[in-house]
Amino acid sequence: MDRAPGPSVRLKLTLSYAGFLMLAGVLMLAAVWVFLLRYVPDRAMLINADDRLANGVFPVRGVLLDVFAPRAAAVLAFLLVFGLLGGWILAGRMLAPLTRITNATRTATNGSLSHRIRLPGRKDEFRELADAFDTMLARLEAHVAEQQRFAANASHELRTPLAISKSLLDAARADPDRATDPLIDRLHAVNTRAIHLTEALLLLSRAERRSFTREHVDLSLVAEETAETLLPLAEKHGVTIETSGDITPTVGSQALLLQLTTNLVQNAIVHNLPEQGTVWIHTGAHARTAVLTVENTGEQLTPRLVSTLTERFRRGTERVHTDHAGVGLGLAIVKTITHAHDGTLVLTPRSAGGLRITVELPLVTDTTPRRSR
């Protein structure tokens, strides 16, 4: 924003300090003068000390004013100089932290997000501002780094199916007698993967922009629908799905919350034991939150690995070898949808193996009727 030039804050504070000091001096001198006038008579008689006879009348107040006025003016002049000089120094010292914050802001504006203010000293308003700014820079730096990794990974993921398709087509052109059925099947699989990846990216963008209509949603009904939809996949992997819980009302997008639950349950099915695995889906209301929990058996997971599972295009080693590989955005989409609904996502490794994922969303406390399904 273009602004007209104006006086600096330091100059304004200096003038404020000097003006206040001058006002205090004037009031003090006025109080002294009033005090003197109260106890000093207007005129006094001059008396001869020998014969104690009156020799004349002396104007006491007039003489006092002649003596007091120049000295009061000198005091005020000293207070003015002292106030300007001292105010300038004090204002500079007080605004020094603000100068560091301003310099850090300019550095961040130029693209350097690794700089931190780290203002020393005890807690006050300036240090609270500096700490808040450092926290903002840290989060912004992490977000930018995540977006850069996402852009690089997305480019790689989109380039891979295109490169495979080009290689297959080049091979077909070089060998006219080659059978086309396997080639068509392979191209269909590659094209399907590219479509799924594009749809996932669009879903991420939609959730991040929060461009959806909010309505009342019962998470228990969403969980039941998800379990019914993914039952064939669970049977194929030898996994049992168990659902439980009460009515869990929240507010959000029905489609996005269904996608969230589907991704969680599908992830729990695919990343499970080779046989006789189990997936538990539970919904419930706790205090002011609507809670959806998806838990599954599986291999032992370390907390460090679990903390990275919501990164975009992050795949566990076992996912690559399954016939339902996905595009590496399942839990990233869950995280984005959760945050878009003002919720929290917690991933916890189970001591017996597998993973427990908890989604907490704002609870609806009114008695608005649910939509029939």
Topology at a glance:
Elements: H1 9-39, E1 44-47, E2 54-58, H2 60-109, H3 125-174, H4 180-209, E3 215-218, H5 219-229, H6 231-236, E4 239-245, E5 249-252, H7 254-270, E6 277-286, E7 289-296, H8 303-306, H9 330-340, E8 344-349, E9 355-362
Parallel strand pairs: 4-6
Antiparallel strand pairs: 1-2, 3-5, 6-7, 7-9, 8-9
Helix pairs in contact: 1-2, 2-3, 3-4, 4-9, 5-7, 7-9
Model description:
- It is elongated and about 130 Å long.
- The two termini are 53 Å apart.
- It has helices spanning 9-39, 60-109, 125-174, 180-209, 219-229, 231-236, 254-270, 303-306, 330-340; strands spanning 44-47, 54-58, 215-218, 239-245, 249-252, 277-286, 289-296, 344-349, 355-362.
- The strands form 3 sheets. It has a 5-stranded mixed β-sheet with strand order 4-6-7-9-8. The chain has a two-stranded antiparallel sheet with strand order 1-2.
- It has 373 residues and is α+β, with helices and mostly antiparallel strands.
- The protein is built from 9 helices and 9 strands.
- It has 3 domains: 9-109; 126-208, Helix Hairpins (Orthogonal Bundle); 214-362, Histidine kinase-like ATPase, C-terminal domain (Heat Shock Protein 90), CATH 3.30.565.10.
